[in-house]
């Protein structure tokens, strides 16, 4: 439980019922329950009240009443988070799913303005309908909402070229902790009129206010070339990334690294998933280039791969012959998190490390874990181009005496200590939430952490906005 949560005062409930439409609140446990369990079934929360506003005005009304009665709130989008940040543990649940309107698309300004409850897939479709492209892409795009993606500063597979969600944000609309509406939905690239407040809310996990709308950057629709490659080692992968950067510059959109063992599991477990290059080489790379011209994208990919073959960086490879072919490559990569879910026990880590040190990390971490913990399987994959690895330590299928679950804390401490020693981060894109809150002081500069607390106290003096996430005040 993250906040003292006695039974909600009847006066508060009466005011909520009076101020909001009947469709905008619920006390029915059957309606509330789906909002209280994460999508993997790892965490379970509790709440007496679900608020489900249909407009920013209704969000503001609800927050003002919560502030008046000192009632804590947990904002929730698509509930696709991985660090127990969006589940209520005694707080009121404020779901933004009903706020799902595409407010405006401006192709000439290359911008789109949307409600916070819009799912990412809907934004992609609206952009595509206007011959534009929104570059954020991740496996949960059919359920993840824009507000949640802003609040976690989501990454995805194209960070290498386009950046994180924060980098794609032009403007933002927020209901503050006292129920005021900050309407900052300006689609401007230049606005030097003071503090750029929108960036405070990106990655804040709902602790400073509730994002209700956003103006996002669009781009002309790119033409891509996609390749699936097999190689010997992470060292070769890092050198291959360097070659692509030198030869293709910032047209390198994605550069994904996967171990063969994870690819084989995905092929065995996920319908329609197969390794495009089934061979004994231990590592796979999925690389994508984006250009304005399709022929240029293909010729550049062919030219760089020819150099990679000549220098011995790759031993096998294939270029997608069509969009469908490329989608088959991406299906393998996007299936890997689902494969991890199927293990009896696994300890998962979302880490980032300087790209140059990833091969060193992979060797040293595996050696330490197998020495300290024993017989384990390790599944590593992720966005090599930006240094983000998803690193799972799993119980082997053949294990007679399970050890991973009992040593989960030790495993995480070992992995995160090594990450920090190499100048990395214990949370690359998933956030801190409640899951990693106790670890943060060991991996964050004290002055930086205290500055974050001061910002929280200034913007949410009652501590009602998703209290206890990231840190305690």
What do these coordinates show?
The chain is an alpha+beta fold and 473 residues long. The protein has four domains: 10-98, Uridine Diphospho-n-acetylenolpyruvylglucosamine Reductase, domain 2 (2-Layer Sandwich); 102-220, 2-Layer Sandwich (Uridine Diphospho-n-acetylenolpyruvylglucosamine Reductase, domain 3); 223-340, Alpha-Beta Plaits; 349-379 and 392-430, Alpha-Beta Plaits. 34% of the residues lie in helices and 21% in strands. The chain has 15 helices and 18 strands. The strands form four sheets. The protein has a seven-stranded antiparallel beta sheet, with helices on both faces. Strands 5-6-10-8-9 form a five-stranded antiparallel beta sheet, sandwiched between helices. The radius of gyration is 23 Å and the shape is globular. The mean pLDDT is 94.
Form type: globular
Number of domains: 4
What does the main sheet amount to?
7 strands, antiparallel
Average of pLDDT:
94
CATH topology of the largest domain: Uridine Diphospho-n-acetylenolpyruvylglucosamine Reductase, domain 3
N- to C-terminal separation?
Answer: 15 Å
The count of DSSP E runs of length 2 or more, i.e. the number of strands, is: 18
The radius of gyration is 23 Å
Identify low-pLDDT runs.
Answer: none
Strand content: 15-25%
Query: Percent helix among the residues?
Result: 25-40%
CATH-defined architecture of the largest domain: 2-Layer Sandwich
How many helices? The count is 15
> Which structural class fits the helix and strand makeup?
alpha+beta
CATH class of the largest domain: Alpha Beta
Strand order of the largest sheet: 15-12-14-13-17-18-16
